[in-house]
Amino acid sequence: MVDNVKASGFTVLFIGVVVLLFTFYNAYLLLQGILEIPVSEDLMSLFGEALAPLISYSIKALYLGIMGWIGSILTRRGVQIITYEGKPREAAPSPVEVIGESAKSK
Q: How many domains, the chain?
């Protein structure tokens, strides 16, 4: 049976891959014009006809960028958890031992 660490690693990896797939699917829909982020008429009148599309596209780019960034972080963490080999670490010497050794060497 898979231990808890590997199970959590697979869970994080799966969530990261799902977020990435969702982001790429949204990007496809946005580029095809099927999915639109609603822009109010107040924004059009406030910034003018020329600036409103630029703001709309920058909002889309920020949305997709942040979603892709989060998905890639989750995917990377999941892979790191899965591939981690639990090697026991050596205990660091206590400050008393270090001071005692330096006093002996003098």
A: 1
